[in-house]
Every structure is written in structure tokens, then in C-alpha cells.
Amino acid sequence: MSGKVFLIGAGPGDPELMTLRALRMLQEADVVVYDRLVSADILNLHADNARLIPVGKAPKCHTVPQDRINEILVEEANAGHTVARLKGGDPMIFGRGSEEAAHLMANGIAVEYAPGITAAQGASCSTGVPLTHRGLATSVQYVTGHRQADKVLDLDWKRLADPETTLVVYMGVANIGQIAMGLMTENLPGSTPVLAVGKATTPDERRLVSRLDQLAADVRDANLKAPTLFIIGKVVSLYAEQPLADLLEQAHG
What span, in angstroms and rounded, lies between the C-alpha atoms of 123 and 198? Predict the structure, then answer.
């Protein structure tokens, strides 16, 4: 009999931000196929007898191509296993979850989902910067700052350069200078505040406050690396620097 695949969002890193559904699915799995950004604390929640298969990718280093990941999921499910496809954040937000689900369903394999807190929500929670706020931002847009196979970053700069919108850029470290220039070319002020958050919600979280016209230089000087998320917009003016440990202590009582 064919097995099934759980597409699980592990959240941004803090195990306490996983859903109960995600935890249950992970602990029911015979096989766990996991990404590089899944934290060790979360990975360690798997069932004692589960087999672990790492398929992580790093920028410009895809040790396991996406086609092979799809094949692994099909092979394991066809062997009768319950497979946890464990992804950082939410599998349906820049996580290729829909691509993997389509491949699985085309091969007659049942798929179930567990949504996860995406990095933008995690960063907002840990820093206290809202993604929307009355009088500052009436909407929020999520965009990717990277194109497959390093293709040209052809974002709709005019649509994105809205001073009443919070713009959240995923996977944008390598192209942040181009992103900032594209937004300013469409008249988003260079003084627009920006908050960069690396490894949000984890003990290694890093934060950088900048402005659009200084962002590329500040990111370079701070040597920020992936995964780093950028929150661009007036809501960043609400940021009050506070150690992550203090925030977590307050949240946990």
C-alpha cells in the first residue's frame, strides 16, 4: 500500500511556534525529509524510530536538486511510509510546497498540510514591529528577493514602492542593493526605515535598523548572511531595541 506525505511548516525556528498539528504529524512519521533551515530543536521532536533524510539547500549550493527531492518523497511514500516533509516557515509561502504537492498527487500519493508561522510573522513577533498598523500601513506584501537559477530580479517596483504598505523581502541579502534602488527609482523615499532580521526567533537572531538609501552598505558592513528577512516601511519606526531573551521571557511568563 502507498504511504502518504505530510507537508509540514516548522515555523521560523523556535519550537514553541510550531502548531499542534505540525507536531503530531512529525511524531507520526516513519521518515523525515527536512530542509537546512529547520532548527535542531525542532528536528529532535521526531519519533524515536524515524529515519532522517537531509535535503537542504544553501544559496548557490543545491546539494539535492528539487527534482530529486520530489523523487525521494514519491519513493518513500510508495514504500508504504508516512513521510514528513519538514520545511522552515510555511510550506506554501516561498517554500515550494505546492510544487511538491502537485508532483505527489500526480503520482497518486495522498498529501496533508500543516501550515507554519512564516518568517515575516516570526520576525514581527520577536522584534515587536507590526506588519500593519493603523495610520502607518494598511497592507503588507511578501516578495522574494531571489530568482531561480540567478535570473534577473524583475519585480514590479512601481507596485511595491507604496509608502502605505509594509514590504517584506525574503531571500534578499544578495540583491538588497538592487531592491533598494528599484524602490527608490519608483519614488519610495530613501529615508524609509528598514529592519533586517537574521535567523528570526532563534538564539542567534540578529537585527539591523537602517534606511533604504543606506541599506546595502549597512548590510555589507554588518556581514549579514542568509537567512535574513527585510521589513521595509513606516512600521519600522515603532521598533524599540530590546534583547530577544527579554522578549521571550515576557512571552513565556
Answer: 9
Q: Out of 3.40.50.1100, 3.40.30.10, 3.40.1010.10, 3.40.190.10, select the CATH number for domain 4-114.
A: 3.40.1010.10
Q: How far apart are CA 170 and CA 120, in angstroms?
A: 8
| Residues forming the active site | 35, 57, 171
> Which numeric CATH code is attached to 119-244?
3.30.950.10
What single DSSP character describes residue 234? G
For 117-174, the pLDDT digits (tens) are: 999 999 999 999 999 999 999 999 999 998 765 677 889 999 999 999 999 999 999 9
Q: Report helix, strand or coil for 185.
A: helix
